[in-house]
Design brief:
mainly beta; Porin; 13-stranded antiparallel beta sheet; four-stranded antiparallel beta sheet; 1 helix
Length: 304
């Protein structure tokens, strides 16, 4: 916002297409029998994630903005509440054509509410009642972590520019996922023990004409999941490489359209959850995922 003037409204969306084909390598049921039913197919579910940003300039020195986003994309489905956080940034220009910025986004606390519905195979009939697994309401408290970013931009001339970014995320806030049931059954606990992560990116901009801008980039994105034992089928993540292409076109002084495509190369995640401790009543899940993600993005901006 520090480099913009006037008022601007931006409407956008990301179409996220994850792929997570699971290959079973010795999973068992709670009764220690081999898990049947094949490999389960592709666990990825495509989704549209919208966003909205508005900026208003009160004067040459004061500008305010608001953003409505889903910063971490896809989740297991719950009825989510609203979460509020803050963004603080600083940008300075040590040389003409060179900018350096620092950005902080606060953590956001959420309370998730939904319904818990259980299905019990015929071989385990009656087990659900004994274990208190009856259909009921459910809640969970989740804190999405704060991030700190350092970025740089340098324009070589009116046609070419380079960008770089490093972002630290405090994922260690997520020690566990604890779901509480309205029926009074024991909490469902999944230990996460996630690690803090870094994401490093490098990109380039080519502007062949005034209205047209072309972009490309690459990023190395660490996974917070510490090992195969802490990986879950909810989020079978692993370290990944982002490859991106995009462009923007300024149709008039008031209207701009931006399009982008990203392909994520994911280091095939392995999972090794044994039927012990909190997983005793869940059985063992052992196998490997063939994973990748494609993201198609579009936004339109109105300046006035």
């Amino acid at each position: 916002m520090a480099l913009q003037s006037g008022n601007e409204l931006q409407l956008g969306a990301h179409y996220i297409i994850p792929k997570a084909d699971f290959k079973n390598q010795g999973s068992t049921t709670v009764l220690t029998t081999p898990l049947s039913g094949g490999n389960g197919g592709d666990g990825g579910k495509a989704a549209v994630v919208p966003n909205l940003f508005y900026m208003h300039s009160f004067s040459e020195k004061w500008t305010a903005g608001i953003g409505i986003t889903a910063p971490y994309g896809l989740t297991t489905e719950y009825d989510d509440d609203w979460g509020f956080g803050a963004n603080v940034g600083l940008i300075f220009e040590p040389l003409v054509g060179t900018r350096v910025g620092i950005h902080y986004r606060s953590k956001i606390d959420h309370t998730l509410e939904g319904d818990a519905n259980f299905y019990t195979p015929a071989a385990a009939a009656g087990f659900d009642q004994a274990a208190g697994l009856i259909n009921t309401t459910a809640t969970a408290e989740v804190s999405l972590p704060e991030t700190v970013s350092i970025s740089a931009y340098h324009a070589f001339n009116q046609h070419w520019a380079i960008l770089a970014d490093a972002t630290w995320t405090k994922w260690s806030r997520l020690e566990e996922l604890r779901i509480k049931f309205g029926s009074g059954a024991n909490d469902s606990v999944t230990t996460l023990d996630w690690d803090d992560t870094w994401r490093f990116s490098l990109g380039g901009i080519f502007k062949p004409t005034d209205p047209l801008e072309l972009r490309a980039g690459v990023a190395l994105d660490e996974s917070p999941i510490p090992n195969d034992e802490r990986r879950t089928p909810r989020i079978p993540g692993a370290d990944r490489i982002w490859l991106t292409l995009g462009g923007g076109y300024q149709f008039t002084q008031l209207i701009r359209l931006d399009l982008a495509y990203a392909h994520l190369l994911v280091d095939d995640p392995k999972i090794n959850k044994t039927a012990t401790s909190e997983d005793t009543l869940r059985g063992a899940l052992v196998g490997e995922y063939d994973a990748s993600v494609d993201i198609i993005s579009a936004s339109i901006s109105f300046q006035f």
